[in-house]
Write a structure and sequence with these properties.
Elements (H helix, E strand, L loop, with lengths): L13 H15 L10 H15 L7 E2 L8 H12 L8 E11 L2 E11 L5 E12 L6 E4 L14 E7 L6 E2 L8 E10 L7 H13 L14 H7 L6 E7 H11 L5 E10 L7 H4 L1 E4 L2 H6 L9 E4 L1 H5 L1 H5 L3 E8 L8 E8 L7 E3 L3 H11 L6 E7 L5 E7 L7 H4 L9 H11 L7 E4 L2 E4 L2 E4 L7 E4 H7 L2 H7 L7 H8 L23 H8 L9 H13 L8 E3 L14 H17 L13 E9 L7 E9 L2 E7 L9 H11 L2
Parallel strand pairs: 1-5, 7-15
Antiparallel strand pairs: 2-3, 3-4, 4-5, 6-13, 8-9, 8-10, 11-12, 13-14, 15-22, 16-17, 16-25, 18-21, 19-20, 23-24, 24-25
Subcellular location: Membrane
GO molecular function, one term: peptidoglycan L,D-transpeptidase activity
GO biological process, one term: cell wall organization
């Protein structure tokens, strides 16, 4: 478009401007561009900076008719038009050369909004400016279309968020652990209840009768107040039960006055207890979630809490979809006009595949069912180290003791001590080792459980009967670091990367004679987790340590390397002794368990200065399944841990 009169950049002498114009017309025809430090560029830059900061006092504005517009008015209109995006102004960039015709200029602005959830909405808009004839200043021609071509005065940008389909946790067969399962929502209609107190009492009794017990118990303390506050015909929800739990008490509650029932489906694991502490839960976003991550979560989102659901929440939940809409006020008698300006479809979550086996996990959960003390049972496949089950109790306990407990292993650690002694050639299964009632080391007495005495018997008998004093007498042959060295060949103290938090143990080292004696029987400063001991047991059964595996996809970045092949003669001897624990020792209750021979070791571990305060353990394997049972404050292992192991093995057939 040819210029009809000489154009002069602000601050450029007219004579020099005419010369420049002549050269430009000859060389390039119609367009004149100003240098980066001229008034036109300065006005554009000032406008873009002021748009983001909310201060446009350094910019002059006119409307398309040329009428002056106050800068404050433009600030308010930008804020109103931006609507839901007002708190996060876009990134703005002046691109290309300006086109100038007489006293009008048009340039291009790149506008890039970062939307909640990380979506980018980018587009370009023309920005028009008019040069003031009085002082040569360039003024921005303000109109709503500067923000977006479809905006008009009174419009506002709004955000609509679409949650992505949440992916699931998969078992070792690649099948979803959590699937839609039938539930019943139990509620009350206030207007139909003649006696609230009596009704609450009968509901409470019914809920307490559910087996396994509902954990945590249904709290009805605020129910009377909620009923008083609700409309007479409202549905006041009391609890949502799995269908199998509801059917247990249906006959007791179905005909109670005011009770209402809604059958639905929810995404749930096979049972309430199913590896719950390991898997975690998925719940609506809580207040602390929204406060901590306002850019990530919105009210109503499903959020993983704890366990694998929490650890892999970002992967599982995917990316929410975002739609930017233009809302135009409704004309008189009409409805609001909504125009879609931008859409990003939700990105579905990606599943997390685990090694868990449904049948093994159900057997483990069932074995702990009814146990009132805190307890854990973890099972590992001998062949490849896959974690098949991780159960925690009582009920659906929230802490994954199976992986993270840090407790003394007691006599289960004689497995490690015996292997170390066999490797050193200090004993064979037939070596006679005295088992007195008491052994004193540097003035500290060590006793056997219930003060039993075996006398001079083969080492295999000391192991099978779990004689503390025999191991205390042998401890000096291991030296201050022998146990720790052997423990490390079995995976203890290793850096395991299996996709979940795990404590791999801490083995006593460098101690004096008393500490060495205590360490030989799994006391002193040695502490482990059930998974660490299951890993030890699987290593003995396999003949080499392999790090337990839990999450297969995404594959952990740095799993521990396999251990060295264990000395065959030592492993064979230890296996023989661990079998004798079951056939003639402290775990004889497992001798008639069907499904193949059981190998193992019991353990009773003191955890404070009172010898009567003990944890109970059993570690062992049958076939291709190694496992560890731990009962906090369980007392005698034969009375608590071994029966749990028996229930597990019988259910696992």
């Amino acid at each position: 478009m040819p210029l009809s009169y000489p154009y002069r950049c602000p601050g450029t002498p007219l004579r020099r401007g005419l010369a420049a114009l002549a050269a430009t017309v000859l060389a390039a025809g119609a367009l004149v561009g100003c240098s980066a430090d001229d008034g036109l560029t300065g006005s554009v830059d000032a406008f873009l900076a002021g748009w983001r900061s909310g201060n446009l006092d350094k910019v002059g504005f006119v409307d398309p008719t040329g009428a002056r517009v106050p800068a404050g008015t433009v600030v308010e209109e930008i804020k109103a038009l931006s609507g839901d995006l007002a708190a996060t102004p876009p990134a703005l960039r002046h691109v290309g050369e300006a086109e100038v015709t007489k006293n009008l200029a048009t340039t291009t602005v790149d506008i890039r909004w970062t939307l909640p959830g990380g979506a980018d909405w980018a587009y370009q808009r023309p920005l028009r400016l008019r040069q003031n004839s009085g002082d040569d200043r360039w003024q921005v021609i303000w109109e709503p279309q500067v923000l977006h071509d479809q905006l008009a005065k009174g419009d506002r940008l709004t955000l609509r968020r679409t949650a992505a389909p949440r992916a699931g946790l998969l078992d070792g067969a690649g099948q979803p652990i959590v699937t839609p399962r039938p539930v019943v929502r139990i509620g009350l209609q206030p207007g139909e209840i003649p006696d609230v107190a009596a009704l609450v009492g009968r509901l409470d009794a019914a809920f307490r009768a559910v087996r396994p017990p509902i954990s945590p118990p249904v709290d009805l303390a605020d129910l009377p107040q909620r009923l008083r506050d609700a409309d007479p015909d409202a549905f006041v929800e009391v609890v949502t039960l799995r269908d199998e739990a509801y059917r247990q008490i249906r006959s007791r509650i179905y005909d109670l006055p005011g009770t209402k029932f809604r059958a639905e489906k929810l995404d749930l694991a096979p049972t309430r207890e199913f590896a719950r502490a390991l898997l975690g839960t998925v719940d609506p976003a809580q207040a602390d979630d929204l406060a901590a991550h306002p850019d990530r979560y919105a009210k109503g989102d499903l959020v993983g809490h704890g366990g694998l659901q929490g650890r892999y929440d970002e992967r599982l939940r995917g990316a929410p979809g975002t739609t930017v809409e233009i809302r135009r006020p409704a004309p008189e008698g009409g409805s609001t006009v909504v125009t879609e300006a931008f859409r990003q479809e939700p990105g579905p979550g990606q599943p997390v595949r685990t090694t868990l086996d449904v049948a093994t996990q159900n057997a483990a959960d069932g074995a702990l069912r009814g146990e009132k003390r805190r307890a854990a049972l973890v099972a590992v496949r001998v062949g490849d180290g896959a974690v098949l089950a991780a159960a925690n109790g009582p009920g659906a306990a929230g802490e994954n003791l199976a992986f993270t407990a840090q407790v003394p292993p007691g006599s289960t650690f004689k497995t490690v001590s015996a292997l170390a002694l066999l490797d050193k050639g200090a004993v064979t299964p037939q070596t006679v080792v005295d088992c007195p009632k008491t052994s004193v080391v540097d003035g500290r007495p060590f006793k056997n459980s219930d003060d039993f005495v075996l006398g001079r018997v083969p080492f295999r008998t000391d192991f099978a009967k779990s004689c503390n004093t025999a191991f205390v007498a042998l401890a000096p042959q291991l030296g201050p670091d022998g146990l720790a060295a052997t423990g490390r060949t079995l995976g203890l103290e290793g850096s395991w990367d299996l996709g979940a938090d795990v404590f791999t143990g801490k083995v006593s080292t460098g101690g004096g004679p008393t500490e060495q004696a205590a360490a030989a029987i799994g006391q002193g400063t040695t502490v482990v987790s059930p998974l660490a001991m299951a890993g030890v047991t699987a290593a003995v059964a396999r003949g080499r340590f392999e790090q337990p595996k839990l999450v297969l996809d995404p594959a952990p970045a740095a799993p521990a390397a396999a251990g060295p092949t264990l000395r065959a003669e030592s492993v064979a001897a230890l296996k023989t002794m661990m079998r004798e624990v079951v056939t003639a020792g402290t775990a004889r209750a497992l001798a008639d368990v069907p499904g193949g021979p059981v190998y193992g070791k019991t353990g009773t571990a003191e955890y404070d200065d009172d010898p009567a305060h003990t944890h109970a353990w059993f570690v062992g394997w049958r076939g291709d399944v190694a496992f560890a049972v731990f009962v906090e404050q369980g007392g005698s292992s034969t009375a608590s841990a071994v029966p749990i192991a028996e229930r597990f093995l019988r259910a696992l057939r």
